Amino acid sequence: MENFAFAPAYELPVWPFTPPPELGSTKPARHPIVIVGAGPSGLTLACDLAQRGVRAVLLDEDDTVGVRGASSRGICYAQKSLEIFERLGIYERIADKGITWSFGRTFSGEQEVYNFNLQANSVSRQPPFINLQQFYVEWFLVDRILELGLTDLRWKNRVTRVEQLADGVRLEVETPAGSYTIEADWLIDATGANSAIRTQMGIDAHSSRSTDRWCISDVRFRKPLPTERWTWVDAPFNEGRGVWQHLMADGVWRIDYQMPEDCDTAYISKPEVAGARLREQLGPDVEFEFVWIGPYGYRDHLLDSFRHGRVFFIGDAAHVVSPFGARGGNSGIQDAANLGWKLALVAQGKAGDALLDSYDAERQPAAKQNLQVTSRSARFLAPRSPAEHTLRRAVVALAARHPFARALVNTGRMSVANDYPAAPLLPEGARSVQNLPLRWADGCETTLMQLLAEGTECIGLWFAPTREQAGAALDAIASLPLRLLAVGGDSSLPTLQADEKLANHLGAGDAGSFVLVRPDAYRAALLPGATPEAIATAVRTALAANERNP
Q1: Are 374 and 327 in contact (CB under 8 A)?
Q2: Which pLDDT belongs to residue 547?
């Protein structure tokens, strides 16, 4: 049998177990926020809270990041997630280490039927996508959390039981030094798809398992391939099944091969079998070494509600979708960004509890939309009926000749920031605002994420207010977490230069119009001809605030 070279294993960081102070205590200590699970969503939430000056306890049953064996797992980080990482202070590390891309090609057989450039409609400082192995992102988040110094990060702490209380949650935790009990005002479950907390609470995830089978090869080549996302709907070198090809950090390529539904997963993962697939694709003389090989099948699930009393579910604990279009990990990161500022304001007494209900009202429909989109991709890539096969053949044939049909070639609609539906706190719904480059009146540069990076405030962008309006508005919002800025004009407010891109992106620009941007960079209100009273009302509505609880 041919010998196949494997690249040296990654040296993943290991953090020490520290016996928690509650060991041996008879009375459970109370903590405002406890997060369980140090994956991308749990770490993002802990980092987000720490960035806002809010303490939390983060429990994880392991003492490292990623999975042992250094598989790539999630690799495609979308613009909205990258903007969140910019605000959290780790974007530059991700950009330096990862592979930036915006261009993709889709093939049927040997013919290119579709390509796209995601940069075309972007006004953000961040690119549409960066590819990076998941363990690096987790690693950078842990480093940043430790640097911020407000999170009690407890490794080798496994939660064995949770109990809902009238005003919180009680947790039993097992460690190498013994067990202990703590209580939390709010508990966030970020433990992933197989959440034991969710199971213990008897919450139905409505899971369904796909029969699709895939095999990942993480591999280095002696001769580099084009730095683009290439997708085959029906690759001739993979018996007419789908293939994905992505470059990641360290010169490692991630190639996903669709396999027969009844395949032997151990057999398809053998180095000699995976090597034969690579040579079928790239020629008999291709030189490579494996980093990791592994099969996967996927399932999907979606909770009816992401909040159950004092317990919140984020990331894969709340929703799992098929991997097409990178809507899984990115959605979990964005769950954390949605919940973080809300927890911070409520914990600080600056917003009402109804603001926490809006987490479910916004992120559950977003997850439902992602599930619908990815399910359609799955059916396009793995047709289950003669009618689905016929439809795919027709779409692919049309796409080769007619531009209108190219958008119908569904190899995974790439992850985008979800809009939020109209709701009591969002009378007009909400949409994400990109990380626009901005300039102060004196010419100094800034960005939206830089404006949102300190504290927990909404940003109010008021186009050319008068001095009288500005003074009255500052009085009206004095008790509210709002940073009021002018865009152009001559007022007493800190002023950004008027910019056509900014006005177009926000859907504003007329003198007197006002845009309310939440701490998670979503437009929560657009007020033409705004008055100080209307601005204050818009902020109170968005934060579920009232006069007694400002």
Answers
A1: yes
A2: 45
The set of residues, in sequence order, having a beta carbon less than 8 Å from that of 165 and lying 6+ positions away, is 183, 310
* Residues 141 and 47: beta-carbon distance below 8 Å: yes
**Element (H or E) spanning 31, and its range?**
strand 29-36
Q: Can you tell me the distance from the alpha carbon of 396 to that of 231, in angstroms, rounded to the nearest whole number?
A: 13
Residues 6+ apart with CB under 8 A from 163: 169, 170, 171
Confirm if 432 and 505 have CB atoms less than 8 A apart.
no
Cα separation, 352 vs 71, in Å, equals: 42
Q: What share of the chain is helix, strand, coil (3-state, %, to 5)?
A: 30, 30, 40
**CA–CA dist 452, 112 (Å, integer):** 42
Angle at 520 between CA 510 and CA 123, to 5 degrees: 55
Distance CA 456, CA 541 (A): 16
Question: What is the rounded average pLDDT for all residues in the chain?
Answer: 90
Q: Which of 76-80, 258-262, 290-294, 381-385 has the lowest mean pLDDT?
A: 381-385
What are the start-end ranges of the H helices in 382-456? Answer: 386-399, 403-406, 448-452
| Dihedral sign from CA coordinates of 95, 99, 104, 108 | negative
Q: Count CB neighbours of 344 within 10 A.
A: 23
Rounded to a whole number of angstroms, the CA Rg of the chain reads 25
Q: What is the mean pLDDT of residues 386-393?
A: 76
What digits encode the pLDDT tens for the residues 161-184?
999 999 999 999 999 999 999 999
Q: Judge contact between 280 and 237, C-beta under 8 A.
A: yes
Kindly state the average pLDDT of the residues 507-525. Answer: 95
In this prediction, residue 550 has a pLDDT band, given cuts at 50, 70 and 90, of very low
Which of 461, 460, 441, 464 is CA-nearest to residue 511?
464
Q: What is the pLDDT of residue 546?
A: 61
What's the token pair of residue 412? 């995974």
Task: Give the span between the Cα atoms of 452 and 457, in whole angstroms.
Answer: 7
Residue 547, Cα to own-chain centre: how many angstroms? 34
Between CA 417 and CA 420 the distance in angstroms is 9
For residues 179 and 157, give the distance between their C-alpha atoms in angstroms, rounded to a whole number. 9
**Proportion of the chain above pLDDT 70, given as a percent:** 93
Q: pLDDT for 290-315, tens place per residue?
A: 998 988 887 789 999 999 999 999 99
158 pLDDT more than 70 = yes
Mean pLDDT value across residues 191-212 = 90
78: nearest Cα among 96, 66, 91, 93: 91
Q: Please state, in angstroms and rounded to a whole number, the distance separating the CA atoms of residues 293 and 262.
A: 19
Alpha-carbon torsion (69, 70, 72, 78), positive or negative: positive
pLDDT digits (tens, 9 = 90+) for 329-346: 899 999 999 999 999 999
110 Rama sector, left if φ>0, alpha if ψ -120 to 50, beta otherwise:
alpha
Token pair 């799992």 is at which residue?
320
Alpha-carbon distance of 16 to 412, in angstroms, equals 40
Q: How would you classify residue 137: left for phi > 0, otherwise alpha for psi between -120 and 50, otherwise beta?
A: alpha
CB 285 within 8 A of CB 2: no
